[in-house]
Amino acid sequence: MTTTESNVISLAKTLISRPSVTPEDAGCQALMFSFLEPLGFNNETMVFEDTTNLWARKGTTTPVFCFAGHTDVVPAGNLELWHTPPFEPTIIDGMLYGRGAADMKGSLAAMIIATEKFINDYPNHQGSIAFLITSDEEGPFINGTTRVIDTLEARDEKIDYCIVGEPSSTHKVGDIIKNGRRGSISGELDIHGKQGHVAYPDHVKNPIHLAMPAFAELSQERWDQGNDYFPETTFQLTNITSGTGATNVVPGHLHALFNLRYSTELNDDVIVERVEAILNKHQLDYDLTWTFNGKPFITEPGVLLDAVTGAIKTVTNRETELSTAGGTSDGRFIAPTGAEVIELGPCNKTIHQVNESVSCQHLEDLTEIYYHALVNMLCPK
Question: Is 188 in the active site?
């Protein structure tokens, strides 16, 4: 195993051993900065409410190339289902096990070691290198990356290119790059009826019966046809609760949750207008609260994608597929500033599961990919 490879695995294990369940950072960011400071990075720790964020930058010129990610992890869950303790990183048959191994402490380690190697090899590189790291990506995401971006925007400090280390790959590291994400908007709907005895239907107003035609229309609505980068927008009911638990009582209230994942063919205002028009069409008495989770974004082929796909080809001799599938990421807060943003990380097969793991070889490959991406971006031929 080479020095770079052993450094990557060692750092990943150290990060995994810190139980940084959202919004706790558990000292992970301080550990990362201890590697960055000797390389000439200036550190800003930005604490917003219960969230710790790191903005570290080396250089004052453009372009600004940023690695973005998060130190927080989801809870381990039932410890009895884990083969090894979730915060005691263990290597078995070439796989590194532990909570956060794939999402995304392995990526963080690869970023740090790649940057260290790059700066040692190219001390006079162009532009600046930055790290934007939060401890609130898996949670409410209100005091993390979005607050750091607000701070940077207020002082006109721009990120030009950004790699988010989310686990984007499917089978082999680098086989998938996420070059965009769908938007996400959620609704919390309360439909009001009138409670009463089932034997007297004239005296009641059943919110379940009233809601069903509207839900059927919402679920069958053709919101758009998608485009070259995005599939068509989808509507999903995620929770419905109603009733008293008795079979002879018509409920007086129905509570429902729903979500739309939408393409760049729509925007928040259009979605709100169309959903409410359908609810009003069915003459429902309702209250509706919207949560705007993030707008869609796309990074088209250009400087960043050319640099990263070239790096993947150099390291793995593999062609890369571009995708916008999956959930949201903190890239949605960075892209609206004008930055080119992509997501590239290890395989996502075990993320958020018990016995989360990542291939050690994939982490070593990822480190080399990040390194060559830096070379391609900041040392152009």
Answer: no
